[in-house]
Design a protein that fits this description.
428 residues; Dihydrodipicolinate Reductase, domain 2; 3 domains; 14 helices; binds NADP nicotinamide-adenine-dinucleotide phosphate; binds L-homoserine
Length: 428
Amino acid sequence: MKDRLAIGLLGLGTVGSGVAELISRNGKHIAERAGMPMVVKKALVRDLARPRNVGECPPLTTDPESILADPEIDVVVEVLGGEEPALSYILAALRAQKHVVTANKELLAKHGKELFAAAKENGVDLYFEASVGGGIPIIRPLKDCLAGNTIEKVYGIVNGTTNYILTRMENGHSYEEALAEAQRQGYAEADPYADVSGLDAARKIAILASIAFGARVTEDDVARTGIERLSPLDLAYAHELGYKVKLLAVAQELDGALDVRVQPALVPEHHPLASVSGVLNAIVVRGNAVGEVMFHGHGAGRLPTASAVCGDLIEVAHNIRQGVRGRNGCTCFHHKPFYPAGQVKIRYFLRLELADEPGVLAKVAAAFGQEKVSLAAVIQKRLTEHGAEVVLVTHPAATRQFAGAVAALKAFPETLAIHQPLAVEGEA
Ligand code: NAP
Ligand code: HSE
């Protein structure tokens, strides 16, 4: 019987230092739950001289082999981030029959198939609770607690940086001001591209969709639009209509095909997602037995993310004690097609600037009518120095037909500006 779980940490930055801290701070309690104490035997870093934000610092190394080839290390925790060398290190750990716990959504969303195959071939576990929603339990609830359901839809706010920016924009701050503040607060990276472009959310919803629908979805399968082109005016007009604007990640199964996307969307103010503000995340799962359940909390951060990693480590310890492999293996049993791009039906919100002349609104309405897109509301908001600002809300329309109407509008001499369309989820 093993007397301890020996851990090799790949990375001792935000998450890695949180894991070392939590294992030390909650060691007694974790040992009771795991059935054995946990010890961080070594941590891989780039810079040995960098000060470490952890009480009891584990021995540091810059040599990955000293962890990957150490026969005493039972489990490798990958919290380096990025694609390489993280992918090669995880594969090496699995081939050395070490269990792996990772927080790396990029790797799972790009290389999930290869990673799960390597774990299976080598008879070891691969856990990744921290890769989506930071400290929010969502991977294991989807795989275990909700497994009796047919999942119909998974949707939510899975990126804290963009939710923080949108919350600031609700108070009238420009996108640029809100982003600069998110960077000052340490939420957004120096290069915030993956967050604001929706790529980080696309990776997370690809992971959730793969589990929920039992079919592999990669980050390239996710249609995405980010928040870079939004204006505080979009949020203010959405508010007047009874909505908040959120960057929503959505995955649903429609007639046996998958629709997986990330886009800014209007959410009714009475919907629980509308009150998720700042850096918090929330994920709603709709199952055919349970109805809708929402998971809400800290989607990132040192200790919340370490909480998810430690939960996975406790599972690994259990599996080792019982001599079994975890139930966290690949559940992509099927191949499912993707819903044809352009045919997904969405309600749209669109802000336009038009010449303030007789007959222009009729021309705009005719352009939508021509594409069989039905308008639910057309509201003239204000006169700008050039013309009139108009907000349109459509009934559900196929993406391709909506795009056809927008293309027709672009050709009108009376159209002065067309802003980024937003999706509308649910009734206000
Ligand atoms: P981080 O603060 O940048 O830490 C990365 C750590 O890895 C550092 O200790 C760094 O060493 C080490 N490292 C990076 N590349 C290395 C290399 N080639 N060789 C040796 N060491 C290397 O990153 P993080 O925020 O902890 O994120 C880690 C992972 O967790 C990422 O996949 C991220 O997406 C995921 N995640 C993060 C959060 C969060 O709140 N931060 C939440 C959920 C998931 P040095 O310290 O010497 O530079
Ligand atoms: N960059 C991510 C976010 C944190 O802002 O939510 C880690 O997933």
